Amino acid sequence: MWRDSFRQKYIESEIAAPVRTCETLRNQLVSGIRRLTPLETERLQAFPDNWTAKGIDDNGNEVEISDTQRYKMCGNAVTTSVIAHFARALIRASGVER
Predict the structure, then answer these.
(1) SS3 (DSSP) at 84
(2) In the chain, at which end, N or C, are there fewer CB atoms within 10 A of the end residue's CB?
(3) pLDDT, tens digit, 9 for 90 and up, residues 13-41
(4) Which of 64, 67, 20 is nearest to 42 (CA)?
(5) Which contacts qualify for 31-39: CB closer than 8 Å, 24 or more apart?
(6) Domain residue ranges of the chain, discontinuous segments joined by +
(7) Residue 63 burial (CB < 10 Å; 0-12/13-18/19+)?
(8) SS3 sequence, 8-51?
(9) In the chain, which residues have pLDDT < 70?
């Protein structure tokens, strides 16, 4: 079962919900879950707000980074706070002191 937001009713079907391109559903997936914004993905990675919003081009000018590239940067990043937690746990488990 899935909710057809366009027609405002629930549909009983084994077939996946259609993907619509209208503006109101632009940021939703088939399951009705909203896509995260680039700002939210930065926060999940523990980056400062708008950390990936601007960049430097080949001429040294500040340029705006597209949302697609911001998603890629956040997706390829390593969450340092999580890695630090695992490293501390491994050090404790191994019995090695500083």
Answers:
(1) helix
(2) C
(3) 555 555 554 544 555 555 678 889 999 99
(4) 67
(5) 31/2, 32/2, 32/3, 32/5, 38/67, 38/70, 38/71, 38/74
(6) 1-35, 36-98
(7) exposed
(8) CEEECCCCCCCCCCCHHHCCECCCCCECCCHHHHHHHCCCCCCC
(9) 1-31, 97-98
How many CB atoms are located within 10 Å of the residue 87 CB? 10
Under a CB-based contact definition with an 8 Å cutoff, are residues 42 and 48 in contact? yes
Rounded CA separation 16/41 (Å): 26
Long-range contacts made by residues 91-96, C-beta under 8 angstroms, separation at least 24? none
Q: Please, which residues bridge with residue 4 across strands?
A: 9
Q: How far is CA 44 from CA 3, 40, 55, 57, 80, in A?
A: 28, 6, 20, 26, 11
State the pTM of this model.
Answer: 0.56
**Residue 35 backbone phi and psi in degrees, to 5:** -70, 140
